[in-house]
Structure formats: structure tokens, C-alpha cells
Amino acid sequence: PNYRWDELRRRNFEWWRTRVGNIQKVFHLYRIDHVLGFFRIYSFPWTPDRNAEFLPCNETEASYKTGGRLPGFKQFPDDTHEHKSANQAQGEEILRVVLEGSGDTTVVAEDLGCVPEYVPPTLEKLGMPGFRIPMLFREHDGSYSDPKKYPRLSLAQPATHDHTPLALMWQECWANIDAGKDVENNRQELRRMMAFGGLNNGEEPPREFDDRVHEAFTRAVMASNSWLAVFQVQDVFAQTARFNVPGSTSTSNWSARLPQTVKQLDADPKLLAKTKMLSRL
After folding, report:
1. Residue 7 near residue 14, CB atoms below 8 Å
2. Half-sphere exposure of residue 12: CA atoms within 13 angstroms, side-chain side
3. In the prediction, which pLDDT does 250 show?
4. Is the pLDDT score of 56 beyond 90?
């Protein structure tokens, strides 16, 4: 469902002020998922369970089924200067309300995806960090961008809940190589991960995501220019459980749990070493 911004505005955004006001009682920091949706959001006039029904339709057929409504950006598509200005103004207005209601709590904006050019300067103007995920920020040759050149006003993270954890990325690359699938590109991706961690002396990637590679990648994130660094628990312990695969319906989504209790984590020498490594870095 879309937010009725006109109605929320008429009520001085009381619902949002209450929502983030309660969040700031509990947390020192929180992230806004898909912050682009405050500026403009791509909206469908049917519920997701009807997607298969509409997939074969052309625009005329879909319009007939919906009474004239078609999918599109709300408020506006970024097709004209005026529309871009209106979207930018709406996003800035709402985010200012969010910041006011959040008090001393730090607000981070998940700004990944197809980002309109007006979003980064707006976040910078508001002093709101965006995200830097190494695998998503690359040079023209495919190598990971230098983390020391990340914007200071940003949050660096090896992966989010929607991405493959580091150990699983490594495992999947080797599985593809062993199966003869896109061998050179997968081997190159392993080298890129090593190079990101400063292990670029020409050595071949090891079969396992070992302690050395894990620490090198973790150090590179910690040493980035970003103001903040956050690690998923799987990337702390080099585990392969994945939280979510976007666009899929599966019982495994949002059901992953740590295989150990905190007490067991401390009792396992190998896992305790991971904890100490992160603490040291």
C-alpha cells in the first residue's frame, strides 16, 4: 500500500513522528530501508498475488482489468526537470520530519539500487549516511572500488540482508568453477575479493574462505573512509546462512537462525577467534 502523503502532511506527519519517536527510545541507530521510496515509488494497482494474471497483458488489457490504472512512479516519474524537483522536495521534506522525530538517534538511508541523481546531494545536505557495499561499488574493469575513497558520510557493510554473505559468495564461486560454469569470471571474482582485502600479489585464491582472506576483507571494510561499519553476524563468523533472496518466495527467507547460542560461540575456539579478530580490528 502507498502512503497517502497528502493526508499525512495535513496531520503534520504525526504518524511518522510517533513511529520514529518510539524507535529512538530503543536504538542508537536505525536504517530506513529503500529510502528512495520517500522521493518516489514504483507502484502497482494490483496485489502481488495477481502478478501472473497480468504478466501476459499489454497496457490496454491491463488497463481494462484495473479500470484505467497502470503501474508507474508515484508521485512522478523522473522524466522532466519539474518532476525531479517535486520528487526531491518531497523526499527532503519527509526525511526532515524523520530526523526531527528521531532526536539523537542516528538515521542511515539504504540508498541502493537505481538511485536518482538528486538523492545523494539531498542525503548529504541532511547529514544522513548512505550505504557502501563493496560488491555493488565497482570500477569499469569490475574490480571493487577503493574503500579508502568511500564518502565519509556513509556506512560500509560487506553485505546486507538481501545479499550473499561473504563465505557463501566464496563457496558459490568455487562451485561454479567446479561445475564449469562461467569459470574465468568466477575465478576473477575470487581474485577481486582478495584484492579488496589487499591480497593482490598474484597468488591463486584458496579453496576455502579461510581466516586470512576473511580477516583481510574485514580489515578493508573497517579501514574504509566510511564513518560507520556494520557486519551481519554471518560475516562476523564466516558462516553461509542467508537471510533473504529478493524476489523469491521461500520458507528459508527470514528464517535463518544462528546454529550456536552466545555461550557456545564463546566456547568454540575457532568461533571465539573470529570474535577476537573483529574486536581487535
Report:
1. no
2. 4
3. 84
4. yes
Helices (H), 118-249: 119-126, 166-178, 183-196, 211-222, 233-237
- Round to whole Å and give the CA distance between 248 and 215: 32
- pLDDT tens-digit readout, 69-113: 999 999 899 999 999 999 999 999 999 999 999 999 999 999 999
What phi, psi does 19 have (nearest 5°)?
A: -60, -55
Q: Is the pLDDT of residue 203 over 90?
A: no
Contact 148, 222 (CB under 8 A): no
- End-to-end CA distance of the chain: give it in Å, rounded: 43
C-alpha cell at 111: 540508498
Report the alpha-carbon distance of residue 229 to residue 218 in Å, rounded.
Answer: 10
In one-letter notation, the amino acid at residue 246 is P
Classify the C-alpha dihedral 223-143-107-277 as positive or negative: negative
Pairing type for strands 106-109 and 29-32 reads: parallel
User: What contacts 70, CB < 8 A, 6 or more positions away?
Assistant: 45, 59, 62, 63
pTM for the full predicted model: 0.90
